Amino acid sequence: MDRLSLRNQLQVYRTPYEEESPFIADFLELTQDPLAYKRERLAGHFTASAWIVNKKRTHTLLTLHRKLGRWLQLGGHADGNENLIEVAMKEAQEESGLRSLRLVDSTIFDLDKHIILERPHVPEHFHFDVRYLLEADIQEPLQISEESISLAWIAFDSVVDMIGYNPSILRMLEKTSKSEILL
């Protein structure tokens, strides 16, 4: 998976979700920029995330993000790596300690473009987040990284209570329950 593979996947990516559809053109445009995979691109850059589920498809692994103070999927910056599957897998492993992680499908699971507010030494910018579906053993011990306050396997029917309203997480949750890949 590299820049060309990502572009090809984005060209065929379709979603029934109205809020996600407009992102596709923005992501395709970004693939043309050689700095798109580096956080130094101040207007915005690629990130990759892992929507991690257990084998029985009853729980998802979320992190209470230290900087943002919100429950989110695991993931992070590409930092020059054009293989966003590798980025998602690496970030998921580093942030959870899980060794049982398995990529369910190499196609894009979800896209989200969201604003990151200005912080000291970092101007406001966009994250163009490409998400992949991963599976892990729910019994494997978790290891919290410096980026997290907490990690937890959350039952699908408790996600809304845990996170509140976050349309991108709710969209991934809905995709998980509808996906034929999971059967």
Automatic annotation (TrEMBL):
The keyword Hydrolase applies. Keywords: Hydrolase. One of its GO terms (molecular function) is hydrolase activity. Residues 43-176 form the Nudix hydrolase domain. Signal peptide: none annotated. The keyword Transport does not apply. This is NUDIX hydrolase. It comes from Algoriphagus confluentis.
